[in-house]
Amino acid sequence: MTGRHLRYPLLLSILAAIVTFGLKWLGYLLTGSVGVLSDAAEAGVNLFAASAAYLSVWYSAQPVDREHTYGHEKIEFFASGLEGILILATAVVIVGYSFVRLLAREHDLEEELGSGTILVGVAGLVNLAVALVLLRVGRRHRSIVLEADGKHLMTDVWASLAIILGLTAVSLTGVQALDSIVAILVALSFAWTGYDLVKRSFNGLMDHALPVAEQEAVRKAIAGGLEPGMTFHALRTRQAGSQRFADFHLLVPGSISVQRAHALTARIEDAIRAALPGIEVTVHIEPIEEKAAWEDSALVPIEQAARQIEKNSGERGVSTPR
To answer: Which domains does the chain have, with CATH numbers?
Structure first.
């Protein structure tokens, strides 16, 4: 899927944010509920976040240039991180306002609780439909921006449900303090979503390695293509937006020809791409007889230590009686 097609779901998200903001704001005007106000504020954040996500997907789809030789995909991490920060900020404001109303005992809700509840419910259904689309497309194409926006909207759906239950409880019991309590609980759920987005974005910007299962798939593909007397080390992986990268050192006998080494490399690269479609692979070929080839990366001692730990764990597992 091209960047242009990835933008279509985000246009839907922008439209949904406009519609739900209007519904929730009207619901607040009808009810005076701080819970509904918090939901409306979150819809405003949704609109800003969806717009930023749209621009980031457009920018990330731009071809490489002389100043960005690795492409522009990392902009997606900035967009999702910004969305997470906005969610956290919104949660703090909502909690603060809710506590002020709770302590001041200002719970004069309007009479139109039923109409407000219906408006919040309709907005929640709109967000649910759009969230499912974003999550499906985002997971299929490994787009952190679409997944972030989808998870954000899904959190909004649960928040709307909580607010509906809160308004219903207020209507049935007459305990208007429940409105502020529900708003605080909703804000805390927003904060957790925001934290998760910021964490994922930070990991992406810091070139966090691919998940262990994907790393093992790469290692298995490399090992399957090796010939006798060959090995590899210093495997590095990372992700930028939806694009994945891997590079490693391939140690081969120094006597083989350049043509044979090239054919071997091409075969291993094809195997890795078969395991992880679309991954960008870089291979550094070195003579296995050279001592420097075994010491030319800071990752080598890390790998050796990891193998020693695995070996020691295996030996303990065999010798330890059950």
So the answer is: 3-205 (1.20.1510.10), 212-319 (3.30.70.1350)
